[in-house]
DNA sequence: CTACAATTGAGACTGATTCTCATTATCAAT
DNA sequence: ATTGATAATGAGAATCAGTCTCAATTGTAG
């Protein structure tokens, strides 16, 4: 039986007239297993080991589809590169990113979210998504 | 008499053993006069009109120096490009960015800042800077 | 099974940014 | 002012992430 996330992805694809292919399944699968945020390049490098014919373009295309479908989130690392994480069984959260070791710590705060909504509303602005990233040094790195 | 920002820039440069040059002065000056956030490319294009020998690399280098010195901030536009603004006589603020027209609206909220500090502290994380960008549609664009 | 439409991978391409390095400018000490 | 050590500059090459193109392949409705 197909696990939940795969089904959700398939449904999302179908609703856009897209197909559920081997490559797309592999990419989602890898993202699900990953313990941390993955750059497209890292994802490509790792998946290539199993499937040496996989194309870089397919990785980017699939990540975009996942992002559009609301199944994955993109964050920006301290060096400017992008990284992705899946959103299954994860509540909304924001990130603290260590500028030394690139560790990513997740946090949530309902009050911040509420205030955000109040602010956008007061400007007649319709929020679609946001990025709240705090850069600094994690506990380990700040003492080195 | 040299205006404040130029003096501050010179001081920042000196403290790093760097020199206050014509190009650096021009770039800061342009940033000060700009009414909106400038991409490095736009800055280069405009300044090239006056000083046709100015190099792109110098623009990027100078923006980095300004950023390091805490005299300029970088934001990321909806299309992924970066843009800069100077920080003279401007309180800290975050941004709402229209995904259609790229308009940038500034906002501040002390409560959010306080909560942020509380959160980072609870993780033993030392914040250096943060990026809080809300993407969506501005009042004008959402009705089109 | 067929036919059409969507997907794919390879590699060319793009745009932003960084790098290299020969030349030029700055500045402190003559 | 001249010098010399050092840093900054500009031109263009190089890099890097990401996108595009297109011929070949695959998925799927019928």
Per-chain topology:
The structure is a homodimer of 144-residue chains.
Chain A: H1 4-15, H2 22-33, H3 40-50, H4 56-68, E1 72-76, E2 82-86, E3 94-98, E4 104-107, H5 110-122, E5 126-137, H6 139-142
Parallel strand pairs in A: 3-5
Antiparallel strand pairs in A: 1-2, 3-4
The structure holds a DNA duplex (30 and 30 nucleotides).
Query: SSE order of chain A, as H and E?
Result: HHHHEEEEHEH
- Oligomer category: homodimer
Total count of strands of chain A: 5
Low-confidence stretches of chain A: none
Distance between the ends of chain A: 48 Å
The mean pLDDT of chain A is: 92
User: What share of the residues of chain A lie within helices?
Assistant: 40-55%
How would you sum up the major sheet of chain A? 3 strands, mixed
What is the global morphology of chain A?
Answer: globular
Strand content of chain A: 15-25%
Radius of gyration of chain A: 17 Å
Largest interface: A-B, 31 and 31 residues
């Amino acid at each position: 039986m197909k696990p939940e996330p795969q089904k959700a992805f398939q449904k999302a694809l179908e609703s856009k007239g897209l197909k559920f292919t081997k490559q797309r399944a592999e990419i989602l699968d890898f993202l699900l297993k990953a313990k941390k945020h993955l750059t497209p390049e890292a994802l490509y490098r790792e998946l290539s080991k199993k499937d040496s014919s996989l194309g870089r373009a397919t990785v980017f295309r699939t990540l975009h589809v996942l992002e559009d479908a609301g199944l994955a989130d993109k964050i920006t690392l301290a060096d400017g590169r992008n990284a992705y994480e899946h959103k299954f069984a994860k509540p909304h959260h924001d990130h603290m990113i260590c500028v030394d070791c690139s560790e990513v710590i997740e946090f949530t705060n309902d009050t911040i979210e509420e205030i955000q909504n109040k602010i956008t509303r007061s400007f007649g602005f319709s929020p679609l998504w946001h990025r709240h990233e705090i850069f600094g040094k994690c506990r380990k790195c700040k003492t080195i």
